[in-house]
Amino acid sequence: MVGMIDLTKAVLAGVRRATAFWGAAPSALLLALVVNCGVADKAAAIPAFARQTGQTCSTCHTAFPQLTPFGRRFKLGGYTAGGGDTKDLPQLSFMLQSGYTHYNVGLTAPTGNYSSPPGGGFNGVNNYVDLAQQIAIFYGGRIYGNLGGMLQATFSNSSSRDFAIDNSDIRYADSFKFYNHDVLWGLTANDVPTMQDVWNTTPVWSSPFITSAFSLSPVANTMIQSFGPGQTLGGGGYLFLNDTWYAELSAYGSLTPKAQLTLGIPGSSVGPAISGLAPYYRVAMEQNWGDHSFMIGAYGMNANVTPAYSYGFGTDNMYDAGFDSQYQWITDVHAVTIRANYIWERQLLNSSFAQGFSANPTDYLRSLKIGAEYVYNNTYAFTATYFQITGSPDAVIFSQNAFMSPNSSGWIFDLAYLPFSHGGPDLWPWFNTRLGVSYTLFTKFDGSATNIDPTNCPYCRNANNNNTLFVYALSMF
Length: 477
Hints:
The chain is mainly β. 14% of the residues lie in helices and 44% in strands.
């Protein structure tokens, strides 16, 4: 394995020296596919799970990482279900993600929200090729008895080139009978709110499932959407009654900036500082009948936050209330999934307002995401997602925004080919890969559809200038 990694590094270095960013897409992406087949953003279809259960990826996923009802029960059961053969293989898996990113219009000046573009570079550059955008290692499955987990560490080839702890979840789960009711219960410890969730609606596992490290994103996001892996540590307990009713209560606290840096989180990504513990709740009802399943649920988080780690001025209070739903129709050949998620956030900015970090003592944000996906034979997947964020204008929080507004909206389309969902090649049957193309279309960006950076004309941009094409290859082995 070390030799393969060294060889891969040498190949990547040679390609980077031999090709410029623009005009390099065809040859670079071809090499990415060769490297992937020879040998993240969000990934959960790890081969260790397939080895442990003896199932193909299509049993747990419609198109990884989206879960089927079986996949959701596997996760709720603590990642411990067996049926396969793991005696001679460690519960380790690896991931390589490569990609080509193209802006509709290249970035031309270090101004406004574009002072630090992803990956760096100006002068009209609008093509980014990265053959090793992410390299990850996973431990997944049963640890001992009813204890299991999924632990991930990822190298991200962004401007800071970090190797850091990523989405991780450890569980203990068991079941019992209460009169005539089936009760599944569990304890979870994880490093980011909603990491433990089993539906593909809440922030960590929602669309887009694979993203580019070089794409631009609107400034505004709700608190529960803003936390990254390794910024918090939390845990709690859950119950799943009669395979229908789900309830969870957890709590999260922030790791110190020093602890986050120790875990590999770059200083620029250190998240909000939760003061004390922030309670998190999740309730859902899922009904399954025949080939159909339907879920409706709610979740939320209430946190006292110290803005910018500036102590001595009290705290802000952030309350997020989320509502979500998911419908699935899954047969041997066809799979249709429809999802909806809405988050309402109230920000009581007592500390921020006192320190001049906000123009208003109270702000609000609203985040909406609606999407649908069709998968044919677990091999071809098409996803369309509409996203929108709206809220209170704030002249300080959005000071780099010409309209001082958080309002953004758009569409994300993804077309993917998954050749090994029903089983990998004979040489390594647990190999899986996803080859795809994604397009993000902005109808509004940071407050407007046009002139979103008018103070810097002739470099002012329209929302659709930030439209992004992303061609990717993600492999798990």
